[in-house]
Amino acid sequence: MALAAGLGMLALRTINLCIRAYAAQSFFLACVALTIGLSDSHTFMVGLIILAVKGFLIPWYLLRVIEEVQIKHDTDPFVPYPVALLVGVVLVVLSYVVMEPLLATRQAAAGGFGLALAMMQLGLWLMVTRRKAITQTIGVLVVENGVFAAILSMSTKIPIVIELGLIFDLMIAVIIMGLLIFRMRSTFMSISTSNLTRLKG
What confidence tens digit (pLDDT) does each residue in 18-32 have? Predict the structure, then answer.
């Protein structure tokens, strides 16, 4: 489901659906953390935090942002949608191929690391292929989901203090990006990052 959501973001032209795909991806990771957390209270609490913040709060905030700036579609991407999706599939396959040597020793961890690496690459690729600042923000969030998936693969016990710090930093970054998007909209009447080239001295 997490990979399907990541690949879906590369193919979706509607920003609203991209945000919902990110929410679905975060919901899946939160459910994994909650399942693991049945034997560890700290991980269970982390799962609840991920579900609340990344599954609901951040998507709600991003939906409000696009409603305020009145941008519904991410048109004119740097890379055509079919090509972006095809490259995304290749990146997913390569991620699991890279992790294949671990299958003989730690099969479960290798699968988790393969998923994490694939999600991070899909997030970075989404940032590269799109012009809209809001979609690039979603790419950053997908990369962060990949990092969280890697943490889940490395350990079944996640220190709640560390995760709270990461979540706090993530929320601050999203809020700042939202304010930047509002500023870009009022200045350029667009949220395309291509307009930022005008600021060069």
Answer: 999 999 999 998 888
